């Protein structure tokens, strides 16, 4: 198993989009800078155009979470591709598009919450707090676009965790490779942890607060279990080999 350059169909959707931009050959850092600047300028333009300055801080934090997630996502993928990577794990992690399915499901649930559940269960919904009682259509469209950007990365984080647990149950590696996979899983935990920056903006909304915090705890738990199973499997193999030598 040797590392090779990813091909389309073996990348996450975000990686494919960056690599497919016509006439552009952006480095990871340049792509992150472009993403942040484009979204932040849009947030500021909408705030200036409609006087929605109270939405700038949550909007900017959401943009930071999305772009920071993009950076950690690319770092995780580059790290994993630099390891001995079984084809089955590669296809499951990068080629299945499960992260998009999870992102779509999470986005549908979020939109349902924002437009149906939240207005019925709180004195002031998030959309009204940020965009006013009669929000302009461009502001709502931008808010939903930024939300999708964040939620897609949450779906990717979920899938990377689940695929990592499956890897640890299915494949065995030497101790050094196992440690390197554990470090890669740690990047994914940092990926999830960055989303806690959104917590201050949902403190009055218990459901969203619980989902965000629970998501981070779940990712950290799965990553820890994955690392222990990966190392434990290899340790048992070495103990058996040592017993045979005696």
Description:
- This protein is an all-alpha fold and 246 residues long.
- The protein contains nine helices and no strands.
- It has helices at residues 13-20, 28-50, 56-81, 87-95, 98-121, 126-131, 137-170, 175-193, 206-245.
- α2 runs antiparallel to α3 (56-81).
- The longest helix has 40 residues, at 206-245.
- The protein is globular, with a radius of gyration of 21 Å.
- Residues 1-5 and 235-246 have low confidence and may be disordered.
Q: What is the topology?
A:
Layout: H1 13-20, H2 28-50, H3 56-81, H4 87-95, H5 98-121, H6 126-131, H7 137-170, H8 175-193, H9 206-245
Helix pairs in contact: 2-3, 2-7, 3-7, 3-8, 5-7, 7-8, 7-9, 8-9
Strands, total number: 0
Q: Strand percentage, roughly? A: under 5%
- Using only C-alpha atoms, the radius of gyration works out to 21 Å
What is the 3D shape?
A: globular
User: Regions with pLDDT < 50 over 5+ consecutive residues?
Assistant: 1-5, 235-246
Q: What portion of residues is helical?
A: over 70%
H and E string: HHHHHHHHH
DSSP helix count? 9
Assembly state (oligomeric):
single chain
Q: Sheet bearing the most strands, described?
A: none
Keywords:
single chain; 246 residues; 9 helices; 77% helix; disordered N terminus; disordered C terminus
Task: Kindly summarize this structure in a few lines.
With 246 residues, this protein is mostly helical. The protein has helices spanning 13-20, 28-50, 56-81, 87-95, 98-121, 126-131, 137-170, 175-193, 206-245.
